[in-house]
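User: ok so my PI wants both of these folded by tonight, can you help

Assistant: No problem, let's get them done. Here's the first:
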Amino acid sequence: MRLVNGIRPMTAALAAALLTAPAWAAPASVQAVWVPRKIHFVYQAFTSFYSCDALRDEIESLLTKLGARELTVRADPCLRPGGVDPYPAVQVTMRVLVPAGASAPAAAHVAAHWRKVVLTSGAEDFNAGGKCELVEQFRRAFLPLFQARHVDLRATCVPHEVMMDTYLSAEVLAPDSPPAPPH
């Protein structure tokens, strides 16, 4: 069989590239810095309702999955302490990793990599079924604070209906090494 128009050199170049960059190679390291973030979040819903404490726990769990550090999630004053609140709210302070800019001092740089985080896993997670509205609002309010990329939200929230197919994932920066234990 005779090859024409340089197909053989192209095939050789492709094979060499595949051999030098295996699929299992570690992700490239990115220089990042920890930056403080603060947000006041008010949850509004038609389907799933929370007490201020339950909202605090949900938000804390999601932010922990995303890798927030020095995280404080405090329930705001509630209209119905201990019960379901029509507009539960939380105050959040935390540190998140973002790509290092030119103005960040080199001493503050942290070696990091992009890591995919699945926040809610869809239909197989029964507990996520009632969280459609919370997941949509969390995505809008919190993910931009992390400079998340490749955000995948699969949710079609319908008021007064529990949706079992809610899925949210994103890539966020994670440090290459674990944090040092506090002294």
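One down. Here's the second:
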Amino acid sequence: MKNKKIKILLAAPRGFCAGVVRAIEIVEKALKKYGKPVYVRHEIVHNKHVVEGLKKKGAIFVEELSDIQDSARPVIFSAHGVPKKVPEEATRRNMFQVDATCPLVTKVHREAERHNKNGYKIILIGHKGHPEVVGTMGQIPKENIFLIETIEDAKELNIDGPVAYVTQTTLSVDDTKDIIKVLEKNFPGIKGPTKEDICYATTNRQNAVKKVASKCDMFLVIGSDNSSNSKRLVEVAKKAGCFRAQLVDFKRELPLKEILECNTIGLTSGASAPEKLVQDFISEIKKYSSVSIEEYITSKENITFKLPSTLVN
């Protein structure tokens, strides 16, 4: 099969965003400063490879604070953010807490709080059950926030009084624009964020996929099944013209048969997937075919976020 030639079009930017880098660093620095174990509520980021690596270093992942066996140990809140009741419970239990919420998610929390304080009902565009959505909805009284997922939801929504909207940070940029158009039509004067909520990394990765996807026989996104931003990249690739687009989880077998039927493959990774997985994928394909690589860079990223003061020596 080495006679087979495959061109890989590598989309960039891809992989870790600043919020993910910060969250992982928070866990690693907490382990270094306080020793092991440290507890992490929910997966720190949605990537199994990352989570398994941190487990080996001494992190224990739990879904609720009640699962923590030693309340004297530090507890870290994931990059997706948490409802207000979680830090309040941790404070009641005298737990040492470190917040790894992505600053761009925190921005959405503050927007929702501000709108609520100013008497607005809030519409949240997002995916039901996603930890980020659960966290955002948990910032204000539940009767004042309404979750919608689709254009149909937006059309059916009926709210009295002044209305504002916020969004999950990892949505499809194009899908969200269409939903917002419906909201603006149905709720004249609706208040939106001063700067859009979908994060720079989500936008940049989706733009890179749009640039590459139509040139490919197949498009693969390296990421985990529970990663919202990774799933959106698959959807974007399909809408951009590559219908054979799919998510590749690092623990699963690669779709080698399908890959080896292709001449040109597009490749990217979700914002919580390490670059190592991309390179491992390329190495695996090289075992079966002759590979050439072209990288398509649509933008450069140089954003970093500060660590919590408790972890800065």
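The two ends are 54 Å apart (CA to CA). The chain has three domains: 5-16+200-297, 18-99, 103-197. Good luck tonight!
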